[in-house]
What we know:
The chain is α+β, with helices and mostly antiparallel strands and about 200 residues long. Helix content is about 30%, strand content about 40%. It has six helices and eight strands, in the order αββααβββαβαβαβ. It has an eight-stranded mixed sheet.
Amino acid sequence: MQSSLFDSENFLTSSSLPQKSSQVIVRLANVDDVNDIGDLLTLCFNNFNDLTLWIYPFLKLGVCEDLRYRLKNIDTDHFCVIALKTNIVQKQSINEIIGTVELSFRTHYSWQGKKKYPYVANLAVSKNNRRQGIASQLLSKCQEIAKHHGFNELYLHVLASNKIAQELYLQNGYTIEQVETDLFSLFVPSKRRLLLTKSI
């Protein structure tokens, strides 16, 4: 059972955006959020044009089903966090998911035995809401969760070619621990990954 850190009042983080009628709340996702998160992830991690737009619903379906499965299973080793933007339009509140990230406690097996570690993945912010600190808020919430569970380091991967994402992580205190090279990345250098870590 999750402790009071994840009670709704304690977990919410609000920050004012430039528009006076907007506010961002960071919270844990639930199954009702899956469709909107699926939209966000599918659009952020794929490039569509008039010829490829037809594949969008199929890609989104796969994303949603994977996420729904993870959220439905009561698993204290997985957390999905969202940034929810609330706009006040004509005295009505309209909520929009503008960012998301996942944190999981993975298991590493070695000759020393098995060891769990917190791993950050699927960080995404909608195009119109970037450069506003949303990604940093999401990363900060992952750090809070990991620290609450007794971990003192966070891990994530980023493509070596993704300079913008690298800059974001470095600004948030991550450092490059290892350049990972496999057979595929030897032939396609743009797919080479960096392992980043942060002490918390």
